Amino acid sequence: MSVGNFEELKAHIGHKIVCVHYHNPALSTCENVAIECETCNEVLMDFDNLHQDKQKMTGKDLLKSGIVGLMKDRKDITDSVAYAKDLGDKVFDDAT
Ligand SMILES: [Zn+2]
Question: What is the extent of the structural domain holding 58?
Fold first, then answer.
């Protein structure tokens, strides 16, 4: 959703317009930058970061992401493999 002509942009005159970026904390990259109308909560113009595909996630990035060790203090999980399988089963059961 973005503006494509004079009338669509004119509709936002006097509104609060901001330039924001959408950041992927796991990869430490900016995925998208957008000019948005906060008044209408609408993206007026946006661009994806075309260079992000070349950046691969390293083991270091994964550690920094906070995902690793997230459940290390959970006492109710004794078998992490069984827990992950059970969680996966629940997610896919709910989705159907
Ligand atoms: Zn607007």
Answer: 6-63
CB 27 within 8 A of CB 55: yes
Cα–ligand 1 centroid distance for 34 (angstroms): 14
Using the mean position of ligand 1's atoms as its centre, give its distance from the Cα of residue 38 in Å: 7
Which class for 14: exposed (0-12), middle (13-18), buried (19 or more C-beta within 10 A)? Answer: exposed
Residue 40 has pLDDT above 90, yes or no: yes
The alpha carbons of the chain give a radius of gyration, in whole angstroms, of: 21
pLDDT of residue 90: 82
Is 32 within a domain? yes
Number of domains in the chain: 1
How does pLDDT run across 50-62, given as a tens digit for each residue?
876 555 667 777 7
Residue 1 in domain: no
Residue with tokens 């930058």: 33
Distance 40 CA to ligand 1 centre (A): 4
